[in-house]
Amino acid sequence: MSRVQHYRKTLVTIGAVIAAGLGAAALALSTAGANAEEPSGGGDFDAQIIGGDPAAEGQFPWIVALADASDPSFNYCGGQLVEQDVVLTAAHCTEGSDPADVVIRHGGTDITRTEVYEVAEIVVADGYDGATMANDWALVKLAEPIAGAATVPLADADTKDWGTLTVAGWGTTETGSGSQDLLHVDVPYVTDDECAGAYGGEFDAASMICAGDLEHGGVDSCQGDSGGPLVSADGVLVGVVSWGHGCAEAGKPGVYANVGLLHGDITAALAAL
Ligand code: ARG
C-alpha cells in the first residue's frame, strides 16, 4: 500500500483500538478482518518480529523490502524474489500503488545498505479481497533483473503439517517501530481447525495458512513484515505474511497467504507476466 494509505490504515486502526479499550468495539475489532491486524493493545504486546533474532547475512538471500519511491528509506512491506526480476509480496502491500510509486530494496540484512531497484509492473491476485484478505498476494516485476540474485522455491502443495516454520522481516519490533536489521523467528504451524477456532469465519482455509505459538504467543510477524516470507525448515516458501489480530498474542496466530494452496494461481500469473 502507499505510504499515505498505510498511515491512514494505522490511524483507522488506532481509532478501533481506542474504541475497543472503551469496550464499545471489542467485538467489532475481533471480527474486523483486515482492520484487526494492527497491535490491539489488548494483550501482551511485545513485538519484535516478535521474539526474534537478527538474521545472518545470506540466510534469506532472496528477501526484499517494498519501499516508497519518493522516499526509499521508508520500507513498509516485505517480499521475496521468485525470479531474478519478480517479487512475490502481499496484495495489500501494493493496493492502490502504481509501479512508479514503489521501489524494491535487496541485497543485505541492514536495510540502509541494500540497493534500490525500480518496478515495471504490479499484478494483484485475481481473487484478492481487501475486506477479507482472501488471496493476499501480488507479483511485482522489476524494470531489470537483479543479476546473480537467489530466488526462493515455492511450496507446490498444501502439505499442512509443516512443523516449525520461520518468518523474517524488517517490521515492527517491541519498540513499536521497524527494525534496521532483518529479524527472523520460528513459529509453529497452526492447523486449519485451530486457526478457524481462533478466527472463526475470518480464516479462509481456501487461501490462508496460520502459524504462531497458540498457547503462549510471544513469536510472530507484525506490521511492516507483510508480504515477507514464511519458510519451511528445508527453505521452501510456505506463506506470505498477511494479517493477524494484534501481534504475538496467545490464541491469535499470524495468518499468511497459503503458497502451497495457491501455487497453481501464482505460477500461472508468473507465466503470464
Ligand atoms: N498486515 C501487516 C503488515 O502490513 C502484517 C501483520 C501480521 N500480523 C501478525 N500478527 N502476524 O505488515
From TrEMBL:
<feature type="domain" description="Peptidase S1">
    <location>
        <begin position="49"/>
        <end position="273"/>
    </location>
</feature>
<dbReference type="InterPro" id="IPR043504">
    <property type="entry name" value="Peptidase_S1_PA_chymotrypsin"/>
</dbReference>
<dbReference type="InterPro" id="IPR001314">
    <property type="entry name" value="Peptidase_S1A"/>
</dbReference>
<dbReference type="InterPro" id="IPR009003">
    <property type="entry name" value="Peptidase_S1_PA"/>
</dbReference>
<feature type="signal peptide">
    <location>
        <begin position="1"/>
        <end position="36"/>
    </location>
</feature>
<dbReference type="InterPro" id="IPR001254">
    <property type="entry name" value="Trypsin_dom"/>
</dbReference>
<keyword id="KW-0732">Signal</keyword>
<keyword id="KW-0720">Serine protease</keyword>
<dbReference type="InterPro" id="IPR018114">
    <property type="entry name" value="TRYPSIN_HIS"/>
</dbReference>
<protein>
    <submittedName>
        <fullName>Serine protease</fullName>
    </submittedName>
</protein>
<keyword id="KW-0378">Hydrolase</keyword>
<keyword id="KW-1015">Disulfide bond</keyword>
<dbReference type="InterPro" id="IPR033116">
    <property type="entry name" value="TRYPSIN_SER"/>
</dbReference>
<comment type="similarity">
    <text>Belongs to the peptidase S1 family.</text>
</comment>
<dbReference type="InterPro" id="IPR050430">
    <property type="entry name" value="Peptidase_S1"/>
</dbReference>
<keyword id="KW-0645">Protease</keyword>
<dbReference type="Pfam" id="PF00089">
    <property type="entry name" value="Trypsin"/>
</dbReference>
<dbReference type="GO" id="GO:0004252">
    <property type="term" value="F:serine-type endopeptidase activity"/>
</dbReference>
<dbReference type="GO" id="GO:0006508">
    <property type="term" value="P:proteolysis"/>
</dbReference>
